[in-house]
């Protein structure tokens, strides 16, 4: 079985964020994301149907979350889980070094029968 490293094969030029699916199935998707000064476009918010566990492996970033409003400065080793449909955006990533994320997306199985409501 081949061995891989999250820090391998990062292009010297990165005009756009690099997003690669590393593994997954119907209910889970694991991605490597590499940012270098990238952020969400002005006015853009992610609003995704699945939960997202995100670990900042290297670099630095600021996330903004809505409802309730929060700004989080992230450094290496910081992680959080963003609930499905919680709007969020990347305000900035370090412009001179790679910001390396490991993101795990997994199904929102709360469903209407659970009695839970989304944020």
Automatic annotation (TrEMBL):
Report the residue ranges that make up the Cupin type-2 domain in this protein. 48-105
Q: Which CDD domains match?
A: cupin_reut_a1446 (cd06981)
Gene3D superfamilies per the UniProt record, alphabetical: Jelly Rolls
Protein name per Swiss-Prot or TrEMBL: Cupin type-2 domain-containing protein
